[in-house]
Amino acid sequence: MDPAQKTALRKSRVHLVNHLEMRHLYDYILKDELLTPIMVETIQAKECRPDQVRAFLDILPRRGPTAYNIFLKILTESGQNALANHIKQEYDRETGNASGLSELSLTPESSSDNEDMEVEGVEVFKGTSLITAVQETGSPVANLPDPQSIVSLTSQGSSASLGPGYTGNYEEEYRMESSPRGFLLIINNRTFRGDLEERVGTDVDCANLKCLFLSLGFGVELRTNLTAEEIIANLEVLSRHEQLPSVDCLVVAILTHGSDDYLYGVDEMFVDVNHLYEKLSATQCPALIHKPKFFIVNACRGDAEDKGILATPSIGRCSVGVDVNKIPDTAQAVRRIANMQDFLIAYSTIPRHVSWRHKTEGSFFVQGFVKVFKEWASTMDVVSMLVKVNHHVSRIDEYAGIQIPSPQVMLTKKWYLNPPNAAYSS
Q: So where's the catalytic machinery, residue-wise (predicted)?
């Protein structure tokens, strides 16, 4: 779907939410293969008509170059011509093109066109040591020290490693003395199979996060270009990994396209983020009970922008053309997940908003995250550092793409990372 078509749909969103009757579309959608049966079932599961429309409009821009044309045809065939004309008028305003519906190509995009494409990163852990299985990205890491010059992951953590902030008072602070301190799994999706554009710049984020957490005394493992199913499978295997009982925390960083409560695999199928969190909950991952579990989610959560449209070509959204979907408030999202004690989730942006990424310097969020944690990790607790990240990212406005991250805190104690090298931030 081209940018003008996506813009026309976005500008028509309120009108469609108010007037579109989804129940008249489903048979046509399946006949023309605009969506898969699973996608239709997901939309139909929404409780009310407006929510069904929002869910549909969120998926539609990702259904290939012919999706817009097929949608307009379906509107006409289902007797909702006025809505088709409304969208077409928005498109004409955007492009100045007065062509009519009769000129549209109506060939559906097959959902199986890309089944034979190879995908990197399909291997799951299979008992591999999380400490040593670190894959290099080859991307430069600016302004970060060599991790091996800072800390050896085989060094023993002990009370002698106490940093200026960490006191070892387990009643008020999470224990952070294991060696390694914890594990970091990075899922880095860059190249997608269909309509989603390549996430240029994400390898910089991946390399910077890897170097940062190695410097903090973590074991790090990378997974690249995972499908939705592979993302879930890696979390399931991780939740049962034999080394989890020996570490004091777990961090999962997911760098991909997203919208609403969904993250996208490279196959453009989506995963509900709450489903991923459940994989590390107390019931499904008892090895992490009473230990901090930290998700770093660098993805869009909608299509709204805080200030204008970026004109600088080196800046891009972390997702492309995603329409705003109804976002449950934070409390509602948490109530759907059982046993979420000791979780910390750092979203790169607030609900309904885009997340900005520089194509050579990486995303605004990861830039701020690495800068703050590099400077303050040995003296400040994690939640306080995330507040500093908010401040730093909110001030990156030189490209007119203002952004504010959104931490979600379910910790029950102070969490200091207590890096083995107390001089890390000096």
A: 257, 300
Q: Is the pTM of this model over 0.90?
A: no
Sign of CA dihedral 164, 167, 173, 174: positive
What burial letters (b/e) apply to 348-382, b meaning 16+ CB within 10 Å?
bbbbbbbbbbbbebbbbbbbbbbbbbbebbbbbbb
Instruction: In the chain, list all ranges with CATH 3.40.50.1460.
Output: 147-410
The CATH number of 147-410 is which of 3.40.50.1460, 3.40.50.150, 3.30.479.10, 3.40.50.720?
Answer: 3.40.50.1460
DSSP state of 293: E
Reading the block at residue 115, the tokens are 């089944």
Which among 322, 346, 316 has a CA at the least distance from the CA of 201? 316
Cα–Cα distance measured from residue 23 to residue 296, given in angstroms and rounded to the nearest whole number: 37
Pairwise CA distance, residues 218 & 184, whole Å: 7
Of the listed 241, 257, 353, 358, which one is catalytic?
A: 257
From 1.20.120.140, 1.10.533.10, 3.40.50.300, 3.30.420.240, which CATH number describes the 3-103 domain? 1.10.533.10
Q: Where in the chain is the domain with CATH 1.10.533.10?
A: 3-103
- Cβ contact 22:78 at 8 Å: no
48 is catalytic: no
- Going 403 to 408 to 414 to 416, the CA torsion angle's sign is negative
Nearest C-alpha neighbor of 417 from the set 35, 151, 141, 117: 151
Rounded distance, CA 133 to CA 135, Å? 6
- Residue-wise pLDDT tens digits, 383-406: 999 999 888 777 765 544 555 556
> What is the Cα–Cα distance from 220 to 132, expressed in whole angstroms?
8
316 bridge partner residues: 357
Give the pLDDT confidence of 267-325 residue by residue, as tens digits. Answer: 988 888 888 999 999 889 999 999 999 999 888 654 444 343 343 434 444 443 333 23
Q: Using an 8 Å Cβ cutoff, are 192 and 224 in contact?
A: no
The three-class DSSP label of residue 84 is helix
CA distances from 380 to 143, 208, 369, 419 (A): 21, 20, 14, 11
257 noted as active-site residue: yes
Spot the catalytic one: 249, 285, 300, 318: 300
**CA atoms of 35 and 230, how far apart (whole Å):** 21
